[in-house]
Amino acid sequence: MRATIDGWRLAPIVESGVVNSGAKRIAKVPRLPVWNGNPYCEPGSVLYYPGYPGTGATIRDFSGQGNHGTIVGATWKKNAQGLWYIEHDGSASYIDTGATFQSTFRGSFTLKIWVRLDDGQSGLQFLLGSLNAAGQDKVSFYINATGNLLATYAANNNSIATETNSSIFSNGQETWHQCIAVYDSTVGGVGGIVLYFDGALQALDAVNNGDTSGITFDDFRIVDNLYIGARNNNGVADLDALTGDTALWQIVEGAWTAEQCINSFNRVKHLLGVS
User: Fold this and answer.
1) How many CB atoms lie within 10 A of CB 255?
2) d(Cα 169, Cα 31) in Å, to the nearest integer?
3) Bridge partners of 94?
4) Which of 7, 34, 61, 262 has its CA 20 to 30 A from that of 53?
5) d(CA 150, CA 152)
6) pLDDT along the chain (275 residues), means of 10
7) Domain ranges of the chain
8) Phi/psi of residue 97, each to 5°?
9) How far apart are CA 31 and CA 29, in angstroms?
10) Which one, of 272, 241, 223, lies nearest residue 73 by Cα?
11) Residue 105 φ then ψ, to 5°
């Protein structure tokens, strides 16, 4: 059986030998990893879309929770490393996860997505989100027109936001980046929501600092499915949809630590061509 590393099958080691003075010198040259459809999934995951097998209108959930998604107006693509991802055209192209994740969003949770934007400062672009009819309950993860990363949350009409204190996305074509939002229901103050970019904890805005004071996570109620690449606004995809590519989508119950965030980035960055 071939060895695997985080779901990537390693091709056999290629050995070449040269006989020199009775000794055999061996050079071992490992080939590029090849996707084998058995992705690594962190414990506590309630959604994990690694993009396998990369065909059809259904994107399979490998978390074991059966939250298979439906692709709407978006297109499958494949990179040189064999990783399948989704191309969004900015015109209501998204993934309908088929689930509200209401119970998950009533406690601590972590959102993770890899993104490559056509323009990092082209306007509001939702990575994912859902908003109920009254607007009093919502979860949103997005980039604003100046390239700042934001995460918002509302439960029973009490809302909060967290935002990077500066632009992290550039004006123009971007490369692949990992974005993580950690919602910690146990904090009850500043830093209740924190952001990671390419594995690094980000400094937060003085006002939008993730202060969860006054928020009761258990009050969260929603009947609308979570969308990826757009926000589900009471059954309609917001026009502020993402233009670019997304990959390796994940939702985990529990607040990830800094170590978990950096490990998650380092584990798969080579699959996106990131050094």
Assistant:
1) 19
2) 33
3) 72
4) 262
5) 7
6) 42 32 39 50 94 92 96 94 92 92 98 96 94 90 96 96 97 95 96 97 97 96 95 83 93 98 95 93
7) 1-38, 41-272
8) -70, -15
9) 6
10) 241
11) -80, 0
Q: How far is Cα 211 from Cα 152, in angstroms, rounded to an integer?
A: 11
Which three-class secondary structure string do you get for the chain? CCCEECCEECCCCEEEEEEECCEEEEEEECCCCEECCCCCCCCCEEEEECCCCCCCCEECCCCCCCCCEEEECCEEEECCCCCEEEEEECCCCEEECCCCCCCHHHCCEEEEEEEEECCCCCCCEEEEEEECCCCCCEEEEEECCCCCEEEEEEECCEEEEEEECCCCCCCCCCCCEEEEEEECCCCCCCCCEEEEECCEECCEEEEEECCCCCCCHHHCCCCCCCEECCCEECCEECCCCCEEEEEEEEEEECCCCHHHHHHHHHHHHHHHCCC
pTM comes to: 0.87
Token representation of residue 93: 């192209």
Domain 41-272, CATH class in plain words: mainly beta
Identity at 30, one-letter amino acid code: P
User: How many CB atoms are located within 10 Å of the residue 165 CB?
Assistant: 14
> In 10 A of CB 98, how many CB atoms?
16
Here the tokens at position 187 are: 């904090």
Query: In this predicted structure, what is the pLDDT of residue 39?
Result: 62
Place of tokens 């080939």: 31
> For 112-121, b where at least 16 C-beta lie within 10 A, e where not — what string?
bbbbbbbbbb
Tokens standing for residue 231:
């926000």
Q: Which two tokens stand for residue 167?
A: 């632009």
Instruction: Write the single-letter amino acid at 154.
Output: A
Please identify which residue in the block is written with the tokens 């997505």: 113
